[in-house]
Design a protein that fits this description.
Layout lengths: L5 H8 L3 E4 L4 E3 H17 L7 E5 L4 H12 L3 E4 L6 H10 L2 E7 H7 L12 E4 L2 H8 L15 E6 L9 E5 H15 L6 E4 L6 H14 L2 E4 L8 H8 L3 E5 H10 L11 E5 L3 H11 L2 E6 L9 E2 L12 E2 L3 E6 L12 E7 L8 E2 L3 H7 E2 L2 E10 L5 E6 L4 E3 L2 E3 L1 H8 L5 E11 L3 E10 L5 H8 L11 E4 L24 E2 L3
Parallel strand pairs: 1-10, 3-4, 3-5, 4-7, 5-6, 9-10, 9-11, 11-12, 12-13, 25-26
Antiparallel strand pairs: 1-2, 7-8, 8-18, 13-14, 14-15, 16-17, 17-20, 19-20, 20-21, 22-23, 24-25, 26-27
């Protein structure tokens, strides 16, 4: 099947309901027309084909219209993290070569002052509210569509930058379509489905796994301003949600908040990554929601393997998409046997299924590719039936006394300790053991460091027991909910040293 453009998907779904937000409901045709009007507005500002525009806005229909409108004008949207401040904000706007900024009122009030003087000279299109933005667009005629070829980027998304500066990932319109089409098939989406999305729209999850899967199926996206544990099931019932996307932290929060069954809703499945196995099982049993865990990254088509509605294996990331090839290799690039951990590498079977490159950083693309494979930096293995198991980032592995293991194993266990709300484990440098282990814990009750160690004893060998414990109010994470482990490696007060 030939890939369909954004314009074709909007046109073919016509009067079907596409988007439901806090402020309104919009059909595919209405979003199409508004996007064409926005394209005219961009041209009035002098935006030309292949120009980049920066979008810094929250989860509302205006974001979608700005993103699609840029594409219809032949421009490319850099969908930037609207929570960035100071140097991080200035860097992404500068590095993306954006020549115009689209910002909503919240971003303008909180962050616009952090721009440098040169960036403040860029044209700024303000989104006061969804309604006023769309009313303003009525002053502009729906313009002629001058979209770039589908092999050109539909957006530039910046990696979270847990180490080093963020990289701008360029994914083509074909990559977006393939991701959405494969997800729609896997999820068995129909026009009657209503997918609830609450992760920030600058993230690959709501863009590829949410927006594009709905568009390829003609389904409805329920775009929430943000994740709310207290309103999750209430919103699902009120809006008629049949599914949602997730990251693992969200499921853990729901499990910790709702101790009793919550099945008075219509959600059949959730689609995402990072669900600890204990949380996964609890979500299915307590809430009646099938967890469809994926393996994915922004560079590799958004998501690359997944469990499906009819074929799932507990604890795995499912089977690989038919348009992408994945293997697990050792340090020398040799494929390892089934059941053996190594680095997950990927390449497209169908053209343009994965990233086209990193914007203005060709050297980083060269670093990531070796022997015609894109190297993910992730560790995992396949089982005998082709199910993939993710074992964490290679650089996040802890090496203590010659033993190497993933912090995810410890985190997945400790999160089930009564009173623990969140946790992270990191390796800290040690002159004798190479690394010692530090546990960073968020708790809602009186938990002592020794209680944490006692809980882990009997589940893990002695070499995996933490020496250092720190009780904190919050685990530092990126906007994409990845733990910022480098920020946790201090062993100064108030860290408790339990000794060797």
């Amino acid at each position: 099947m030939n890939p369909s453009s954004i314009s074709e998907l909007l046109a073919q779904n016509g009067d079907r309901e596409f988007l439901v937000t806090e402020e309104g409901s919009y059909t595919y045709a209405e979003i199409h027309e508004l996007s064409r009007r926005f394209a005219t507005l961009l041209r009035k500002h002098g935006v030309q084909q292949k120009d980049h525009i920066a979008i810094l806005a929250g989860n509302h229909a205006s974001f979608i219209v700005s993103w699609f409108g840029a594409a219809l004008a032949g421009a490319i949207a850099a969908t930037l993290n609207n929570q960035l401040l100071a140097e991080g904000l200035r860097y992404t706007i500068s590095q993306s070569d954006s020549r115009l900024i689209v910002g909503d009122r919240e971003w303008i009030e909180s962050s616009y002052h952090d721009l440098n003087e040169e960036q403040k000279l860029l044209p700024l299109i303000k989104i006061e509210s969804e309604a006023s933005f769309f009313e303003m667009l009525l002053d502009y005629e729906p313009g002629e569509e001058t979209m770039l070829p589908m092999t050109e980027p539909l957006a530039i998304l910046y990696t979270s930058g847990t180490t080093g500066l963020p990289k701008g990932v360029m994914n083509s319109q074909i990559a977006y379509w393939r991701s959405g089409w494969q997800a729609a098939k896997l999820l068995e989406l129909t026009p009657e489905d209503r997918l609830m999305v609450f992760l920030p729209m600058f993230h690959v999850n709501p863009q590829m796994m949410g927006t594009m899967s709905c568009m390829c199926a003609g389904a409805t996206m329920l775009l929430r301003p943000k994740f709310s544990a207290s309103k999750f099931f209430e919103d699902a019932e009120r809006l008629g949600a049949t599914g949602c996307t997730y990251v693992g932290t969200i499921l853990s929060i729901l499990v910790n908040r709702y101790k009793d069954e919550q099945k008075n809703h219509g959600i059949r499945f959730c689609f995402g990554a990072g669900a600890p196995t204990g949380v996964w099982r609890t979500v299915e049993e307590r809430f009646g929601i099938q967890v469809l865990e994926v393996y994915g990254m922004t560079e590799l088509g958004g998501w690359t393997s997944s469990n499906s509605r009819n074929e799932s294996r507990f604890g795995s990331c499912g089977k690989v998409r038919e348009d992408i090839e994945l293997k697990v290799q050792d340090e020398d690039g040799v494929e390892v046997p089934v059941g053996v951990n190594g680095e997950i590498v990927g390449r497209p079977i169908e053209p343009y299924s994965i990233l086209s490159g990193y914007w203005n950083k060709p050297d980083k693309m060269v670093e990531s590719c070796n022997n015609l494979w894109f190297h993910s930096g992730d560790r995992g293995h396949f089982d005998e039936d082709g199910f993939l198991y993710y074992q964490g980032r290679i650089k996040e592995l802890i090496r203590r006394g010659g033993e190497m293991f993933s912090p995810i194993e410890l985190e997945a266990s400790l999160i089930h300790m009564n009173g623990v709300l969140d946790c992270a484990f990191v390796g800290v440098p040690d002159p004798i053991m190479d690394e010692e282990i530090k546990a960073v814990v968020v708790a809602n009750s009186e938990i002592t460091p020794q209680m944490i160690v006692d809980f882990l004893k009997g589940q893990f060998p002695k070499y995996m027991m933490p020496r250092y414990i720190e009780l904190v109010r919050e685990i530092p994470k990126t906007a994409n909910e990845k733990i910022q482990r480098e920020r946790l490696k201090s062993v100064e007060f108030p860290v408790v040293d339990l000794g060797k």
